[in-house]
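Internal tracking record. Fields below are filled automatically when a chain is submitted to the structure queue. Please do not edit lines marked as system-generated. If the sequence contains nonstandard residues, flag them in the REMARKS field before resubmitting.
Queue: standard
Priority: normal
Entity type: single polypeptide chain
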Amino acid sequence: MATELPGESAILDDLDKRIVHGLVVDARIPFAKLGAILDVSEQTVARRYRAMRQRGVLHISGQINVVPLGHARWILRIRSTPSGAFRLAEALARLPELSWVSLLSTGSEVMCVSRARTAERRDALLLKLIPGTPQVTGLIAHEVMHNFPLDEDWPRYSAMLTAEQLRALGPGRPVQDAAVLDAPVALTPADEAMLAILARDGRAPYAQLAAATGWSAPRVARRMAELLESGVLYFDLDFALERMGVTVRAAIWLRVRPADLAAVGAALATCPEVTYVAATTGPTTMTAALVCRDTAHLYRFVTERLGALDGITDVEVTPALRLFKQAQVLMDAGRITLVR
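SYSTEM-GENERATED OUTPUT FOLLOWS
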């Protein structure tokens, strides 16, 4: 069922939530089609979408999955001097290869995700740029070994639609693991031009993409479908979570017995509070991102959800003091302010 959070109704009404779910399933769904599914006009869907964007509530971007390109995803925990952590997080948020930049509750640790697309840029980030920053006192890099797909993407509004509406929307497109591919995908300059526009606006019109690539609109559509099928391209929705009733965001770092990794990861992927879960290398073997109504909700998740799972030998919980960047957007006072 959808998780109702305090304060949501002031930001998103029921129709907004149904529109959001449609966009989560298919970020580029034509508004005419989505309106027909939801039994409202195309103009109503378009107006509601524009309003949510203008209020800084959501943003859609096309993201590159570096794994099918032959590279790894890394989750970084960067220790800093207490006085320099805020400035460090601000600087890291402006690097295009880094996403999900947050200052953790220790006040002197920044967490982020690296999606460097070349080995040279990865080494520059992990071995030179970040360690060489004066305020950095330590770095732990966790390579993502396996991403566990969620049973439903957050904010989990599917229960607000009828079974017929859900069938009409379809199942959506999961991000594909590299293991499915025979060889890394090579991107052309025209691909890069298209992807750069989609990173700023995941719903950019085909005509705009055609002008940037020199292709016809049908060719753009075919190539986009190929990149989606390969898993190189996926569409992500960034939300202003604080404006949707979320007051606590946290990461959990788990030590899980190897034989139990798959079962624990699959179980966490069904939890309404979990927005991301992966098995990783490093001193902990699994990490998950959480959204909770409040600290009491977080406590219940740790004691009841995690406590019921076999195989977990140690848990560290690190709430976020402030989120500086999500997948593609910069944040300020809980509002989407700038697309990078």
